[in-house]
Amino acid sequence: MTSARSSGSSDAAPDRDSATERVPRARMTGAERRNQLIEVAKSLFAERGYEATSVEEIAQRAQVSKPVVYEHFGGKEGIYAVVVDREMSDLRDRITSSLSSHRSRVRVEQVALALLTYIEECTDGFRILVRDSPVGASSGTYSSLLNDAIGQVTHLLASDFGKRELQPESAGLYAQALVGMVSVTAQWWLDERNPPKEIVAAHLVNLCWNGLMNLEPEPRLHGSDSAEA
């Protein structure tokens, strides 16, 4: 009898422990689940690219079923569009605010620093913006953001060129060169991360600003036969 009671007692203990362990997880609200899926998808898109990422992988990493992803976004292209839109809005706000005030040189400093700070704080987002997008995407891309920046810089340079008796019609060309230089350097810094962003920005401004301040009214190529003639 004693051994029987002991055996029964030892069987009951695990049941109580199991009941304690099987506490159900708190269910996410619809908004919480949506944000979770966006963050998971952003990480995968940054790691693997759009084409190499599947809805199944997004669902698996988020620990949900594939229909949950389809319910919120309609598919991979839908969730990718949301990720890109969020990142674009963040980066556009940073760049626009950096162009909205300050003296001309400080504007250049702030634009370079804004882009580098975004890369530092939102590395996955920047990798997605500069890498790839679904075929046929014509807006909401890094290229469209750069075009917006070029338009703003063109306007600023045209006004400055007019005051300095330079050719305002060449402002667009210089804007392309300046924005391109900052953008390409930023993509290089994405993986390098050395020197610190403040030093990178300072060197970019050194080249941009000192070049702009010493522009020739009518530049000529000095190494060509036509120029020597």
From TrEMBL:
Compositional bias segments (type: Basic and acidic residues): 13-30
Gene3D superfamilies assigned: Tetracycline Repressor, domain 2
InterPro entries hit by this protein: DesT_TetR_C, DNA-bd_HTH_TetR-type_CS, Homeodomain-like_sf, HTH-type_Tx_Regulator, HTH_TetR, Tet_transcr_reg_TetR-rel_C_sf
Keywords recorded for this protein, A-Z: DNA-binding, Transcription, Transcription regulation
Domain HTH tetR-type: 31-91
DNA-binding region: 54-73
Compositional bias ranges of the Polar residues kind: 1-10
Disordered, as annotated region: 1-30
GO annotation (BP), single: negative regulation of DNA-templated transcription
PANTHER family the record matches: ACREF/ENVCD OPERON REPRESSOR-RELATED, ACREF_ENVCD OPERON REPRESSOR-RELATED
Name of the protein this chain belongs to: AcrR family transcriptional regulator
Species in which this protein is naturally found: Hoyosella altamirensis
